[in-house]
Amino acid sequence: MSRNIAFASDHGGFELKNHIMAYLKEQGYNCVDFGSHSEESCDYPDYAVPACNAVLGGECECALLFCGTGVGISIAANKLRGIRACCCSDTFSAEMTRAHNDANALCLGGRVVGFGLAEKLVDAFLSTSFMEGGNHRRRIDKIAAIEAEQKL
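The structure corresponding to this sequence follows.
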């Protein structure tokens, strides 16, 4: 398989990140870990940015990001032009964020989502493709236009 997936977490998502990395390695994925590397208190933007930059630079096809709720790290990730990060806790949303929004980062909460559900969410996200064309493409293009208008 040899698909490169970027991983990042803060201390609140550290345990879930490590579990999902082990789960995907068993399936043949190449997991690129951008930290954190312990449960010591840290700040999720410090890890989300390098992981998302690996996606934007083509080193990784997508990012799996973890914090306590999944929300904070998704906010940080979405500040990067070209990243479409989504915090999900149900499989329908994990599928639709790929199919309709062409999301390239899935964010999960280590204090919200258990190991079993997290595996299902990641499977749904990684196995779903963007539905090219039509309304979905038009909306993604509008999001890109909004990003392009922002001053750096």
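The helical segments are 14-26, 45-56, 71-77, 91-99, 115-127, 134-149.
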